[in-house]
Design brief:
Distance between the termini: 66 Å
Shape: elongated
Number of helices: 5
Structural class: mainly alpha
Helix content: 55-70%
Strand content: under 5%
Largest sheet: none
Number of strands: 0
Order of helices and strands: HHHHH
């Protein structure tokens, strides 16, 4: 009987630990530096195509909170960028890098940032 109690306690402990780790692991971490480069590159291509008026990104990272950036990328709602076609065509890894850049410098982050 004593062995079952220990096993039960260990199983419950693992489940509790997994409930805290799961949400963090769900959103991948990308390369923020590469994300900044890609974000600007996408806007430059969008500008050259004539879809936007400026090669400078329309949304600064501090235009949204971290939760708002997360929601936008989880829902794949790229219309607000003005370059929806370019964003839809990006590979997942590039989107993760751009998300990491925007999320890390959101308005409620420790280091909010405007594009220069």
């Amino acid at each position: 009987m004593f062995g079952w109690k220990k096993l039960f306690i260990v199983a419950v402990s693992l489940l509790v630990a997994a409930s805290f780790v799961g949400p963090v692991a769900a959103m991948e971490q990308g390369n923020k530096r590469k994300g900044k480069y890609l974000y600007r590159k996408v806007y430059k291509a969008c500008y050259e195509r004539g879809a936007v008026e400026s090669a400078k990104p329309a949304l600064n990272p501090d235009a949204k909170t971290q939760a708002e950036w997360t929601q936008m990328f989880e829902q794949k709602n790229y219309a607000e960028f003005g370059c929806e076609e370019e964003f839809q065509a990006l590979p997942k890894d590039d989107l993760v890098d751009i998300y990491s850049y925007l999320h890390a410098h959101a308005s409620d982050s420790p280091t909010p940032l405007k594009c220069k």
